[in-house]
Amino acid sequence: MGRTQEETVTELTRPRCLRNERGLLYTSAAIALLAAGMLVSCVENISLNPLPADEGVIPTYVVVTVDSADWPTDPIDIKHTLVQGDTLALDVEYSGGCRVHLYAFVVSGSFMESDPVQTVALLSHDQNDDECEAIVQDSLRTDLSALKAEYQKSYQTETGEILIHIDGAWAVRYVFQ
Fold first, then answer.
1. pLDDT computed for residue 110 by the predictor
2. Cα–Cα distance between 54 and 142 in angstroms, integer?
3. Which of 75, 83, 115, 146 is most buried, taking the most CB atoms under 10 A from its CB?
């Protein structure tokens, strides 16, 4: 069962911070608090920014609401997606080649009630003012286990299925046992 409005507000006032696969802290309430002009912290200050891919691995941020106005959205084409276990693989293409590009996978922890439940996500891309025009192909990976943990907490079950809509163009099925 999903959370009530009161439980969501309580969650926003009491950020729960976890670490993703790269050791970066995140919180499901971070974007809402940042939008309100508040610094999000839990023992350590956190930074919700796109980062360079570390051997193709990009950070995953679970937020309350995915708003593209909050994240860099330079052009990037997703060519292929594949979920294996808790890892989402994305084959992408973009123009550039002269600068390091930054990425983040931003996914909503607020689920739309359906069978299976659905959520929205954004592949944030910052081209870092790269003016080169080469066509660059890249393979990115991101860990979905924080999304799984949010689902397990919300629905009080260990197994589940989530349909993730990425950038309004792709839908991937994430099933976990």
1. 93
2. 11
3. 146
